[in-house]
Amino acid sequence: MNPGSKKPYIELVTGSVLFGLLGVFVDYLQDVPTGPMIFYKQLFGVLSLLVFMVLTGKLSQIIPRKKKRYLLLLGFINTTTLFTYFVCIKYTSFSVAILMLYTAPMYVTLLSPLILKEKITRRGIVALVLSFIGLMFIVDMSGISTGLTMGNEYIIGIVAGILSGFSFGSEIVTIRYIKDDYSSVAQLFWYTLIGVILLLPFAGGVPKPVFADNLNLLILFGVVNTAMAALLYVSGISQIEAQKGSILALIEPVSGIFFDFTILHTPLLANTIIGCIFILLGAYIAVMEKSPRVFGKYFRIQV
Q1: Alpha-carbon span 228 to 117, nearest angstrom
Q2: Where are the alpha helices (DSSP H) in 178-250?
Q3: Which of 27, 38, 48, 101 is a good FRET partner for 85, with 20 to 30 A between their CA atoms?
Q4: pLDDT over threshold 50, residue 157
Q5: pLDDT 10s digits, 168-194
Q6: d(CA 276, CA 135)
Q7: Whose CA is closest to 237, among 167, 287, 190, 168?
Q8: Residues with Cβ within 8 Å of residue 33, at least 6 apart in sequence
């Protein structure tokens, strides 16, 4: 990167902001069931990635080499992350879902000593505590109580949100584990393609009239949120100091909440704001505590 160049920063911020638009797409695609929505998002995304790699001469990067089974595992984990994340959005709100997704750093803190042989330190424990406190602020405990007694769908969304955070944390660790064998673009292509295969049963789960009415938006969803956002993100963060990049990446949940509030007019409660502060602070501490590359170059190549 040339000294003083702002291009990588613009790419990273733009990619993070585009990721934050996911909630808007989901809201506008309400007539499309969750399964088919994720399938077509991934399908049009991987087709866009394929075109990009052909045009840029990067096609050779996707040839499988070592640790092939971890590519399969990554595809499964990423699909799980997407599915639980979308379910959480459906039954709670995008603000709650994206913040619960970003509890991933606390799970990475727990998993990294086992898989990456990284030590848990006092800062790691502090990050865990702050993230947990933030989660408690965001989760509507009265809603959970009501869900337990009355079958409220809110509880389904909360459970899905917790699973999405854990799955995303597992995804980050897996990406970190195979980073020396596969480039970021190659990993992005393979886990997206595997996701398409896993979600194939959902391909016909949407009525033809609904599919036709939403086709343009589904294509845009895949191109913008699966391909373009990730490519901009990876291009930018690969040229920025990892610590700076990982901090800038936190623009995604903040922008998601902003779009949720301004475009979808979802009420922004005081507890959500407080929870946001705690979780982002916990994520920041986790980022600075762990090897920055875990959350820097590899923190958001999936939704």
Answers
A1: 33
A2: 184-198, 208-221, 229-237, 242-248
A3: 48
A4: yes
A5: 888 877 877 787 788 778 888 998 999
A6: 9
A7: 287
A8: 202, 205, 206
